[in-house]
Amino acid sequence: MKAAVYYSLDNIIIEDKPTPKIGVEEILVEMKACGVCGSDLMEWYLKTRAPLVLGHEPAGIAAKVGSRVEDFEVGDRVFAHHHVACLTCHYCRHGAYTLCKQFAKTHLEPGGFAEYFKVPAPNLQKDTLKLPLELSFEEATLIEPIGCCIRALNKCNIQAADSAVVVGAGPSGIIHTMLLRIFGASQVIVTDFVDYRLKAAKRLGADLTINPETESLIDAVKKATDGRGADLVMVTAPNVNAYLAGIELCRKGGTLCVFAPAQPEDYMRLSPNKIFFSEIKLLPSYSTSHVETRIALKLLQTKRIDAKKLITHKFPLNKTAEALQTAARNKECLKVVVTNEQ
Ligand SMILES: [Zn+2]
Ligand SMILES: [Zn+2]
After folding, report:
1. SS3 of 251, please?
2. First CA to last CA distance, the chain
3. Which residue from 169, 179, 149, 129 is spatially nearest to 286, judged by alpha carbons?
4. pTM listed for this prediction
């Protein structure tokens, strides 16, 4: 089979690989569509593990099913989650599924940017979802990224009538914008340096968009929130400047959600004095679990979230390199999807 092997963002090669062999409790899926994630573009995150096959937002058709698998059959249309928790460890018993040791160890083999991938038994049992017919494979690639955003927003405990600022209007920022309305926020403000993305945010639910290059971000947010700052600041841009801005935009007692990592060598100065007296809560949220993927699927199925509005670019598997480079460098795009249609 063909697979896109990642050596670096500028060196992604289509190679022939053996089609994974499945065990009796596993299935083989023919990939039909797989989303490109922001984390697929973070060279610092990937370079120590390269070469590898990326793609953790896949959907496809069950092509082979192990003899002891009961709930799936050949031909089923599925989404498979690449990471699943054990559900029994200390972290899992606290609901911190994404911190479970097994969570990081589990993965699809070799990854979603391949003609076929294997779903190991734990992934199959805990977080492989059958897709309703009305949901296309491309739409289903949004299950994982929407799940990540739902997990974060659930932690943030947003209240009806809350105001929120989303920092960064890439795919995650736009998904947060759409979800914030569903979660009941009464005011969603989105900031980004790219007007194309701000326009998309406006179309998809933002009440107010701010480009800090053309106006003062802090003044605009203060003005929109009776001088207080926002109840919630969701930082989706993976850099320190976004966090420094985010803290200034957060009201006293508000929440700053750490939704995207900066580079490991980057640090920011935090004043315990300011954090103490302002009671700003820093709340990180990493990845998603079997709990949120099911909610994400429901929101897509019922068109509460229209995935089609998020997907702006599609590339065939043999152009995976172009897909990732487009997502990394073309500012005029939202979600990029790799497809495997013959
Ligand atoms: Zn992702
Ligand atoms: Zn666990």
Report:
1. strand
2. 13
3. 149
4. 0.97
- How much is the mean pLDDT over the chain? 97
Nearest to 278 by CA among 258, 257, 256: 256
Tell me which residues have their CB within 5 A of the ion that is ligand 2: 85-86, 89, 92, 100
CB-based neighbours (< 5 A) of ligand 1, an ion: 37
Q: Give the 3-state secondary structure percentages of the chain, helix then strand then coil, rounded to 5.
A: 35, 25, 40
CA–CA dist 290, 97 (Å, integer): 9
Distance of alpha carbon 65 from alpha carbon 237, whole angstroms: 40
Residue 155 Cα to ligand 2 midpoint, Å, equals 19
Q: Residue 84: nearest ligand to its CA?
A: 2
Answer yes or no: are the C-beta atoms of 317 and 342 closer than 8 Å: no
Span from the CA of 170 to the centroid of ligand 1 (angstroms): 13
pLDDT band at 47 (very low <50, low <70, confident <90, very high): confident
**110 contacts 117 by C-beta, under 8 angstroms:** yes
Ligand nearest to the CA of 81: 1
Angstrom distance (rounded) from CA 202 to CA 241? 23
Closest among 199, 244, 197 to 217, alpha carbons compared: 244
Ligand located closest to 144 CA: 1
- Ligand 2 centre from 326 Cα, in Å? 36
CA quadruple 219, 223, 225, 227: dihedral sign: positive
Q: How far apart are CA 130 and CA 137, in angstroms?
A: 11
pLDDT tens per residue across span 168-203? 999 999 999 999 999 999 999 999 999 999 999 999
Q: CB of 9 within 8 A of CB of 36?
A: no
- The rounded Å distance from CA 91 to ligand 2 centre is 6
